[in-house]
Design brief:
11 helices, single chain, Alpha-Beta Plaits, 354 residues, SH3 type barrels, alpha+beta
């Protein structure tokens, strides 16, 4: 009955001239919010860009559209205030406006905080895309706080809810044991700095590639053939991992070579080092400042074995570096008359005895 009376009252209100003033409040709220948002973001952008702060783009994207929405909500609330509505309905609209304001503020704060956390992680680690797990945790905590504030404004008792959550939390932990295990394993992986996005890793299972992201449930690895391997965080935390980017991305490249016994080893060493220096200087991925090394290793059955040590900027550069070194070394040995012997086998067939 009250709803029907209120609907009839609203219909009469819209049909009357009193509708003009509230409509102007709503329109004015939109215009003020639109102009204020553009002016405020432009002023903040100029200020932060002069100071060289990288986070202002995150703040701008998070606030875009929210100031206008909040201003429209304020204009709507002002329009309801000047309208001739029942006090009960006005009280409902007031609470709805406060809840909407809390939601907008919480959403903007969560976006800004999560964006700044991701930005700080990227700057600290110098990685490619940052992990999303930290941003998601911060976003969830802020939105949960906003929800509690909204319930408090609606005069909903929070203490029984928290008590129920505490009692039901144990049952939920048992029901979502695997999910929580992956969540805390992911947090442990990032907190211990075992791996970060952009690192090239190899697992004891044989999977290897670049770490793309660590989410609340799994770790994503992009292999060299451009495939994606998704590994649960709990298995990732217990795996034996070789991280080729820690403590530094540079890696030694070992190339095994062998020459004939009649070779002049001094000449072999000089020629090999000369080719190695050229490769490090000219081939992409080589560390030009590194001085290559030659270690004669052993006398095998048909040649003298030695190892050449090169230096690559990161793990995947070793393929290009090794390829170019072997090609150039083979050509240079041929020019210098240095022989690379190969194993030969002689097969002797005895006549069958009758």
């Amino acid at each position: 009955m009250l709803f029907d009376v209120e609907l009839l009252h609203m219909t009469e209100f819209v049909a009357s001239r009193q509708f003009i003033l509230p409509a102007l409040f709503v329109l004015g709220g939109f215009l003020i919010g639109f102009v204020l948002e553009r002016v405020l973001l432009l002023a903040l952008g100029r200020l932060w860009s002069r100071r060289g702060w990288d986070g202002w783009q995150t703040v701008r994207k998070s606030m875009l559209g929210m100031i206008t929405l909040l201003s429209v909500a304020g204009g709507l609330y002002a329009a309801i205030k000047v309208a001739s509505l029942y006090p009960a309905a006005l009280q409902v609209y007031r609470k709805a406006f406060l809840v909407l304001a809390v939601f907008i503020v919480s959403l903007v704060t969560a976006r800004i905080a999560a964006g700044l956390v991701d930005l700080s992680i990227r700057k600290a680690e110098g990685a490619l895309p940052s992990t999303t797990i930290w941003g998601n945790v911060v976003r969830m905590l802020i939105m949960l706080t906003g929800l509690l504030v909204a319930l408090k404004l609606l005069e909903v008792p929070i203490t029984p809810i928290l008590t129920a959550l505490g009692v039901g939390g144990f049952a939920m932990a048992l029901a979502f044991q695997d999910t929580l295990s992956n969540l805390f394993a992911g947090l442990h992986i990032l907190a211990s700095k075992q791996i970060s996005p952009g690192d090239y890793v190899r697992l004891d299972s044989g999977d290897e590639g670049y770490v793309v992201d660590v989410t609340w449930r799994n770790t994503t690895i992009r292999t060299l053939p451009n495939n994606v391997v998704v590994i649960p965080n709990s298995r990732m935390a217990s795996a034996i991992i070789t991280n080729y980017h820690r403590p530094a991305p540079e890696i030694s490249v070992l190339v095994d070579v062998g020459v004939a016994y009649g070779s002049d080893l001094r000449q072999v060493e000089l020629v090999t080092l000369d080719v190695a220096r050229q490769v490090l200087r000219e081939v992409q991925g080589g560390v030009s400042a590194f001085e290559p090394l030659v270690f004669f290793r052993e006398f095998s059955d048909f040649r003298i074995e030695f190892t050449v040590v090169l230096r690559a900027r990161e793990y995947v550069d070793r393929f290009r570096l090794k390829h170019e070194f072997i090609k150039r070394l083979h050509e240079r040995y041929r020019e210098e008359g240095i022989e690379i012997p190969s194993a030969t086998r002689a097969l002797r067939f005895e006549p069958e005895r009758v």
